[in-house]
């Protein structure tokens, strides 16, 4: 067991050191989810390696309810193992609308699972893709007043990369991921707008996650989890989640976020392996009320591995 945890530690530290030493950028935002624990590849590409059958997840999030131009995000992730190997491939499609800006992301994720022993696994993942950004600033000129600063439309395509490492065993998981490895910077000069694609630790979004489940009274599961988030120039954040499930069907729970909001959630899993979930965000103080009121819907599925016994995972990873 000591050897296993040393492997996890060295792998995580090595990955963090590599990205910290080789990158440079300007910070930017990424979508914010409430039900990420239902489908963890949304935030950690290596989590795809914990599936031994075809899987998928769709999440739709509407934040800042009641405000014109409030963010609306929809993200789809579908994948599965490749033959009898420990390689898992998946594809992602996401669309985000904020005010006059639209952003569409396309990505492909490759996760490779290492079997440490009969009960412990370590997965490494990387996602590469591109994003298309289209911002119509001319629509901001209204009321008869025209501002020349907003007389144009900006659209461009930029590459994206994210990576992670993910350890899991029966009833437990822990992972570290980094998103936004590449970012772009739009500069104004006499020649127009120039987009620079760079990488910098200051722009990267780091995630550390862990979850556990406990069975009791035969039909109940208690599934607590925590997510730590960090990006340079912003306050350190954490989410603490508690989820209960009855007979592997009906689920309910709550989350607390350090930004000053709480999340109430419910979900139901059908016998065919399809899960639907809903969450509502509510502010616990006036400071957070304007920014984080919202709703989210999740739809996911997971097929059992009945053919490729060579890559079968005989552990129950908490998936909510």
Tell me about this structure.
By secondary structure, the protein is mainly beta. The protein has a single domain (2-311), classed as monomeric porin ompg (Porin), CATH 2.40.160. 8% of the residues lie in helices and 53% in strands. It contains two helices and 17 strands. The protein has a 14-stranded antiparallel beta barrel. Strands 8-9 form a two-stranded antiparallel sheet. The protein is globular and about 60 Å long.
Radius of gyration from the alpha-carbon trace, in angstroms: 21 Å
- CATH class value: Mainly Beta
User: Which word captures the global form?
Assistant: globular
* Biggest sheet details: 14 strands, antiparallel, barrel
In CATH, the architecture is Beta Barrel
> What is the distance, rounded to the nearest whole angstrom, between the alpha carbons of the first and last residues?
26 Å
Keywords:
single chain, 320 residues, Porin, 14-stranded antiparallel β-barrel, two-stranded antiparallel sheet
Task: Provide a concise account of the structure shown.
The protein has helices at residues 2-21, 286-292, and strands at 55-63, 72-81, 87-98, 101-115, 120-136, 153-169, 172-179, 183-189, 192-198, 205-212, 214-216, 220-230, 237-246, 250-257, 261-269, 274-283, 294-302.
